[in-house]
Design goal:
It is a single chain. The protein has 164 residues and is mostly helical. It is 96% helix and 0% strand. The longest helix is centred in the middle third of the chain and has 134 residues.
């Protein structure tokens, strides 16, 4: 049987194919393995780059979120400060208005008091004038000139005391 196999051409073709495949397999396996390794390395590099990009994107997102929180905090501080300032200005304006009204009220009261004093002085002066005219008429009718002059002098002397 072995002899029969050695004489068969198909056997030798099979042996040649096996030898060819065995000889060709090592360089082909290296080429295929090298290509697969290169592709695996390329894919690993792309994955690493994708991870780096994702990490950078997450860092940027975190930074933007932090900045947004800070901006929101600053905006709230600005609004709170503006409210406080507006309340302070409103209180000061109300106080200033109250003071202005109080000054005007006092000025009006002073003017009224001055007008009353002036009116009283004018009434007193008119009353004195009327009293003098009436006294003169009574005196002229009832008293002689000498006695009249003495009474007038006495009345004039007492006049400053009566006006007090």
């Amino acid at each position: 049987m072995i002899h029969h196999l050695l004489a068969d051409a198909e056997f030798w073709v099979l042996v040649a194919v096996v030898i060819f495949v065995a000889l060709a397999w090592k360089p082909a396996a290296r080429a295929i393995t090298g290509a697969l390794d290169a592709r695996a390395n390329r894919i690993a590099g792309e994955l690493d780059q994708a991870r780096r990009l994702r990490d950078e994107a997450q860092q940027l997102l975190a930074e933007y979120q932090r900045k947004q929180r800070e901006a929101l905090g600053e905006a709230q501080e600005i609004v709170a400060h503006a409210k406080t300032e507006a309340e302070r200005i409103a209180a000061r304006s109300a106080r200033d208005l109250e003071q202005a009204l109080e000054r005007r009220r006092r000025l009006a009261e002073e003017r009224i008091a001055q007008a009353e004093a002036k009116a009283i002085d004018e009434i007193r002066a008119a009353a004195v004038d009327v009293a003098i005219v009436a006294a003169r008429n009574v005196i002229v009718e009832e008293i002689d000139q000498q006695r009249g002059a003495a009474l007038i002098d006495g009345a004039i002397a007492q006049l400053p005391q009566g006006l007090r």
